[in-house]
Amino acid sequence: MTAHATGFGPSSDGTGLSADIFNSTVAGFAIAAAWEVGAFDVLNDHGVIDVPAFCEKHNLHLPSMRSMFAALGSAGVVVRDAADGGADTVRTGSAFAEVYRDKAFFHWLTIGCAELFANMPGIVRNENRVGGFYRRNAVAISYACKDINRHSFDPVFWEAMEALDFDFGTVADLGCGSGGRLAQIAGRYPNVQGIGIDIAPDALRDAAENVAAEGFGGRFDFIEADVRDLAPDPRLEKVEVLTCFMMGHDFWPRERCVTSLRRLREAFPNVRRFLLGDTARTTNIPDRDKPVFTLAFETAHDLMGVYLPTLAEWEDVFEESGWKFLNARAVRVPADSVVYELA
C-alpha cells in the first residue's frame, strides 16, 4: 500500500486510496493466474523467475505475463528488475510469502466466484433472485479448496484422525470435490476403501481421475448426489468414518440442517465418527479488521442466499439431530473455522 492508503486525505494525482483499491483488485486476479500457470511455485522454490524463458517453456503470451507481474508488483508480491527496460527478471517481494500461503483464497474469489461477484448489481435486486440466479465455477472452487484444505484444515483433520480409538475399513467424504482428502486417507491407511459424494459432475470426474492417478482408483466409488438428501444405498451402510469439509453450511438454515443431519444418520447407520469441518459466520469483527477470506466468504454466501451459521449455532443443533458432540478443534485460518468430532 502507498502512503496515501492511510485514508487521511484525498490524493490529487490519482495515486491515493482509490488507486490502491483498484490496483489491488487487479493484483487479486494476477495472484490466481500466477498460481495456476505455475509461476508462483517457481518463485516459491527459487525466489526468481526469468519471464521470457518461463513463457517460452509453457507457451505463454509474454506481454500478458509482463502485465501480470506488474500487477503483482503493485501489491509488493514481486519486484521486477527493470534495469534493462524490459522487467523480465522477477523476484519475490516483501508480501510474497504471505500471499503465496493464501493464494487459494484469491483463486476461490477471482476465478471460482468471478461471475457471482460480477453479477452483484443484478443479484441484489429481489426481482432477479429466482431460479438459478447465480453461477460459480465448481471446478475452480474445487481446485482452490484442495489447497485451502491442505494448509488450513488438514493439520487439524489429521490430529482428529490420529486420535480415533478404533480401526475402520470404509470412509466417505461428503462434497469430495477433486478427491484430495480421499487420496490422502488412502495413502495413510492402505486397507481402507472409500466413497466420494458430490453434487457437481465435473468435480466428480476430476476426483475419479485424480485418485486413479495416485494409484487408488480401485478403492473408491463416486456418487453424484445432494448430500442434504441422500437416497438409501447399500454402499453407504459400510461407512464407519464420515468426513465433510467446507460445505456444512449448505445444510442450513437451522430446521433444514437438523433434518439433513438426521438423514445422514439414517444414510450412514454404522458411522462411528463424523468429522465436520467448516467456516462459520464471524461475529464482532469490525469491517476494517476482517481477516483474509472472511469478507469474500460471507459476502458470497449472502449473495447466493446461503445461510451461514455462527459457531454457537452449529453447536446448538448436534444433539437435536442425533449426533453426540465430542470435541471441537479450532482451525487458525479462515477465521471461526473448526473441525467438529461427532459420534
Automatic annotation (TrEMBL):
<dbReference type="InterPro" id="IPR029063">
    <property type="entry name" value="SAM-dependent_MTases_sf"/>
</dbReference>
<dbReference type="GO" id="GO:0032259">
    <property type="term" value="P:methylation"/>
</dbReference>
<dbReference type="InterPro" id="IPR041698">
    <property type="entry name" value="Methyltransf_25"/>
</dbReference>
<keyword id="KW-0489">Methyltransferase</keyword>
<dbReference type="Pfam" id="PF13649">
    <property type="entry name" value="Methyltransf_25"/>
</dbReference>
<feature type="domain" description="Methyltransferase">
    <location>
        <begin position="171"/>
        <end position="263"/>
    </location>
</feature>
<dbReference type="InterPro" id="IPR036388">
    <property type="entry name" value="WH-like_DNA-bd_sf"/>
</dbReference>
<keyword id="KW-0808">Transferase</keyword>
<protein>
    <submittedName>
        <fullName>Methyltransferase domain-containing protein</fullName>
    </submittedName>
</protein>
<dbReference type="GO" id="GO:0008168">
    <property type="term" value="F:methyltransferase activity"/>
</dbReference>
